[in-house]
Design goal:
single chain, Isopropylmalate Dehydrogenase, 7-stranded mixed beta sheet
């Protein structure tokens, strides 16, 4: 399998993507990893151990920046690292691509460069939200499409269910619909219509799920439109950041608190790791005719390595083919 990594995408590029690629290449010899980006800048971050035989560089001198308008940048910056990685996937020269760069640009790359699976109307961005049981909840859409029709939410449910089964090994994953109440008649017209569709869908639908229950692991797949989903995601990230900042301030307030913090540190670190997106690697853009993974902009090298692990698992279990087959069966049936 061949996996392309956008070396120029992310807050700490190209250092972090390069270091993450090195970690992955040295751990998984069956994966051929291609670093796509400015060759000279990439080579500055190769360590003394040299470049493993399963790691290569594809020179792409340009980069899409965080402030770039996504669609315009993808269309105009033909030599940008993200666009070049997308072309590799479209041309089947790579089986997957990973980027920590501009989210909107990556969605545009998926749509305009790689292309959608036939029958998919709108792809969805699907990160794993942390839960108290450590299993996480795959949530989609978390920002690729602010507006969604009931049929789009149905497709998200099908794709998310297949992903959980193929990549995370969850048999018959529970699918929930994000809503303002658990009753079937709650929500706006889109969620009410989506509820009826999901009841008849080839998934294990467990009904509406309120935002307050997501962290408790109320479902394995959470379905929502990109507007509500992105608000939920950013709210969780902000709450976690504020919580740990407040805890740190309190634990260092006095000598007694510092002594207590020393005792609690292992448990607090374990809890922090459970809530850390870096442990989950990347969010797949489901519905694209090729495997496209979005890492968090502030990812470290461990998160990039975990994204490669995700890609290997998805490719080994033929995720894209499974989604395509199910959508074709639904369309033809």
């Amino acid at each position: 399998m061949r996996i392309a990594i956008d070396a120029m995408g992310g807050d700490h590029a190209p250092r972090v993507p390069v270091k993450g690629a090195l970690l992955a290449a040295r751990e998984w010899s069956d994966a051929e990893i291609v670093l796509v980006g400015d060759e000279a800048k990439i080579k500055e971050h190769l360590d003394d151990g040299g470049m493993p035989s399963n790691l290569s560089i594809l020179h792409a001198p340009d980069a899409i920046l965080a402030e770039d308008e996504p669609v315009r940048a993808v269309r105009r910056k033909k030599d940008a690292s993200m666009v070049a990685a997308g072309r590799l996937v479209r041309e089947k020269s790579a089986d997957a691509m990973i980027s920590a760069g501009n989210t909107g640009a990556l969605v545009a790359t998926g749509l305009l460069i790689v292309g959608r699976i036939q029958g998919i109307e709108r792809p969805g961005l699907a990160p794993v939200l942390p839960t108290m049981d450590g299993k996480g909840t795959l949530a989609l859409d978390m920002g690729a499409n602010p507006d969604a029709a009931p049929e789009h939410l149905l497709q998200y449910a099908v794709m998310g269910s297949i992903y959980r089964e193929k990549v995370h090994g969850i048999s018959s994953p529970r699918v929930g619909l994000l809503n303002i109440g658990t009753e079937a008649n709650k929500g706006n017209e889109v969620t009410k219509q989506a509820y009826a569709l999901l009841e008849q869908a080839p998934v294990r639908f467990v009904g509406n799920v309120e935002a307050r229950d997501v962290l408790e692991g109320a479902c394995d797949v959470l379905v929502c439109d990109g507007f509500a989903g992105n608000i939920l995601l950013k709210s969780m990230e902000g709450t976690a950041k504020a919580l740990f900042t407040a805890l740190k301030a309190e634990m260092t307030r006095s000598l007694l608190n510092k002594l207590a913090a020393a005792v609690l540190k292992p448990g607090l670190q374990s809890f922090k790791n459970k809530m850390d997106y870096n442990e989950h690697g990347a969010a797949p853009l489901l519905g694209i005719d090729g495997l496209v993974l979005k890492s968090h902009g502030s990812s470290d090298e461990n998160a990039i390595k975990n994204a490669v692990r995700q890609a290997r698992m998805a490719l080994s279990n033929r995720l894209v083919e499974a989604i395509s087959t199910e959508i074709s069966r639904k369309r033809d049936g």
